[in-house]
Amino acid sequence: MIQDPKRYTLTAALPYTNGPIHIGHLAGVYIPGDIYARFLRLQNKDVAFICGSDEHGVAISMKAKKEGISPQEVIDKYHQIIKQSFADFGISFDNYSRTSSKIHHETASEFFKKLYDDSKFIEEVTDQLYDGEAQQFLADRFVIGTCPKCGNEEAYGDQCEKCGTSLNATDLINPKSTISGSKPTLKSTKHWFLPLDQYDAFLREWILVGHKNDWKPNVYGQVRSWLEDGLKPRAVTRDLDWGIPVPVAGAEGKVLYVWFDAPIGYISSTKEWAERVGKDWEPYWKSEDTKLVHFIGKDNIVFHCVIFPAMLKAEGSYILPDNVPANEFLNLEGNKLSTSKNWAVWLHEYLVDFPDKQDVLRYALTSNAPETKDNDFTWKDFQARNNNELVAIFGNFINRVVVLTHKYYEGIVPQPNAFSEVDLATLAELKAYPHVIASSVDRYRFREALGEMMNVARLGNKYLADEEPWKVIKDNPERVKTQMYVALQIAAALSTLAEPFLPFTATKLQSILNVQTPLSWKSISEKSDLLPTDHRIGQAELLFAKIEDEEIQKQIDRLEAIKISNTAASKTVEPQKEMAQFDDFAKLDLRVGTIIQAEKMPKANKLLILKVDTGLDIRTIVSGIAEHFTPEEVIGQQVTVLANLAPRALRGVESEGMILMTEDKNGQLVFVHPAAADVANGATIN
User: Fold this and answer.
1) Percent of the chain surpassing pLDDT 90
2) Which residue of 141, 176, 358, 686 has the fewest CB atoms within a 10 Å radius of its CB?
3) Which residues pair with 684 in a beta bridge?
4) What gap in Å lies between CA 33 and CA 29, rounded to an integer?
């Protein structure tokens, strides 16, 4: 761990431009990175917070094929949506670039060429999967098959999303082309490989020894598992027509593998930023007194902790990341977020339903951040955190302070009198909070840090509740001057301490308090007059508004509709059976009947023994519906019976017919019965 770095290079995972940004991305990567960047800037640190759109690779090609447009049209569309979403939610990148830019193509090509010239690659002719129908090699995500490790039948050619195992397409069992649906064949092709096995000793020493005590357990554990499985050479080129051309002779029709090209995007984006602001980019990537931190989700751990460091080590002139504080995944209402199934809360859509409530979402996501394990976002929790915490604690405190200051002193900070022990203890506690919050942020515990920031608002509320200036004003107005002075100092501190977490709220609070120059982090611990005597504050304004049940129910109903739609879309309709002649159908005797008795079949989980009045007789029918209905639920149910089915013994009970069943749109088993209520038992169905 670097002590007292001279500068900070912070990177956030480059989002694929094959779709918009959702809350999972925000919670896992971009809010944590933004909190850290804002926190450092408040301490006047030299920070470069870098990101950009990842615009190459198979995901883009797949999206283009699906939408019937060119890859360039795909990236132009989603680059703008993504960039705007980040701006709307206050993600304070110093530079947001794109990997389709000229500077990135040049940087990535130069990086590859340097490793190529230094003989860091292995050149091999290997058998790769080839789609004969589409007449192209199948890179990574153009192949699905069965994962050899966990048996997931929908694993991609680069990674199984169920167990997280990194794969090569040729590892898959029963591979299938996602382009044509056909079974691919093996065909020889030449590629360049980074021999990761040659960096095994370096990675073990650097991570397993050097970062044993400061990297998050989930990151450390995944890297150790990868190393223990044994590193193998990994291709850095692909047979594709979309990407950065491999810049060497004999590589026509090949591009740089997206996971070789994408992390270099951090470097090219830094170059772009430095050129714009008139700085030298190299110290931010090549100086030992720079702290490099990658903010990513857990699905990118191997690329940022094994592959990219190996690339940097092979190049020879770059620093390595000081930390990679990857988060786990965020689920939505109990189910995994899914772009393809529209199971997500999209940032651009959120702002339509909750305008000017960016900080409410930032707060809810940080409070529930998946820092050590997968967590679940629910709309009810979102509402509760807004109403019970932001409104009732933070907003309530600020509103009371501002309203009382205007009521008693026309908005002017009063001159305090002698401080009581309670006053001094409260101010001393306030001065300690910057260090407490900083300690959590420095260890990438942003959820904990947010809780400590809210404790400052709780400190203010407790102080006012205990001191009761609205009562004291009647008998001791001089004492109230001191009370309000103390409360105003807490409010002023919050205008800075909240800034990393709730930037829009902090700006609004600074406006309410008429703070022209935001306070530095350090000043809160050192100064006692954050808002000096005779300073005039602005008018009261609500920081947060209560969110009503109707607003939340609308979101829950929307998700329920998506769930029903997904269930219907995923259901496979049984193919039509072979043609039946009219005489075959005429043999079937379908009758309306009513279940009059029902009991479970002993020692059988699936079977119910039913007594059915068919109008012809009362007969026994054994039906495999016990896992879906209790005996009590089916008694009195009118049903359709195949009456002339040959009897069959099931577990010693003779079944004399069959009851017709189907499934509803939610996949639940239901009876097929006449819609009319007055159809008599025994009525035939023609």
Assistant:
1) 70
2) 686
3) 591
4) 6
pLDDT for 135: 76
Beta-carbon contacts of 183 under 8 Å, excluding residues fewer than 6 positions away, are 174, 175, 176, 177
Q: Which contacts (CB < 8 Å, 24+ apart) does range 451-454 have? A: 451/367, 453/494, 453/497, 453/498, 453/501, 454/389, 454/393, 454/394
Q: Which two tokens stand for residue 621?
A: 């029918």
**DSSP three-state, residue 366:** helix
Query: Is 369 within 8 Å of 27 (Cβ atoms)?
Result: yes
Q: Which residue has the tokens 């998700």?
A: 559
Q: What is the dihedral of CA 68, 71, 77, 81, to 10 degrees?
A: 120
Q: Is residue 98 helix, strand or coil?
A: strand
- Please give the pLDDT value at position 671: 87
Strands (E) across 312-471 are located at 330-332, 335-336, 375-377
Cα 180 vs. chain centroid, distance in angstroms? Answer: 31
Expressed in percent and rounded to 5, the helix, strand and coil fractions of the chain are: 45, 20, 35
The whole-number average pLDDT for the span 329-357 is: 92
- For residue 665, the model assigns a pLDDT of 67
DSSP 43: T
Q: Which pairing describes strands 590-600 and 638-642: parallel, antiparallel, or unpaired? A: antiparallel
3-state secondary structure of 446: helix
DSSP 678: T
How far is Cα 497 from Cα 456, in angstroms, rounded to an integer?
A: 9
* Residue spans of beta strands (DSSP E) within 86-141: 95-98, 122-131, 136-137
The β-bridge relationship of strands 47-53 and 185-194 is unpaired
Q: Which two tokens stand for residue 13?
A: 């995972």
> Is the predicted pLDDT of residue 677 greater than 70, yes or no?
no
Closest of 37, 21, 2, 62 to residue 444, by C-alpha: 37
Burial of 376 (0-12, 13-18, 19+ CB in 10 A): middle
653: how many CB neighbours lie within 10 A of its CB?
A: 15
- For helices 396-409 and 503-512, angle between their N-to-C axes, nearest 10 degrees: 10
Residue 365 pLDDT: 98
Three-state helix/strand/coil letters over 606-625:
CCEEEEEECCCCEEEEEECC
Judged by DSSP in three states, 596 sits in strand
Greatest CA separation found in the chain? Answer: 105
Q: Please tell me the predicted confidence (pLDDT) of residue 537.
A: 97
Rounded CA-CA distance 414/613 in Å is: 88
Q: Which structure tokens are listed for 229?
A: 């499985």
Query: How many whole angstroms separate alpha carbon 140 and alpha carbon 242?
Result: 14
Separation of alpha carbons 479 and 469, rounded Å: 8
Neighbours of 28 (CB within 10 A): 28
pLDDT band at 571 (very low <50, low <70, confident <90, very high): low
Has residue 507 got a pLDDT over 80? yes
Q: Which residue has the higher pLDDT, 132 or 317?
A: 317
Between the CA of residue 38 and those of 10, 452, 492, what are the distances in Å?
11, 17, 18
φ, ψ of residue 597 to 5 degrees: the values are: -145, 150
Inter-residue contact 398 to 494 (CB < 8 Å): yes
Do residues 128 and 85 make contact, with C-beta atoms less than 8 angstroms apart? no
If DSSP codes are grouped into helix, strand and coil, which group holds residue 50? strand
How many residues comprise the chain? Answer: 686
The residue written with tokens 């994408």 in the block is 262
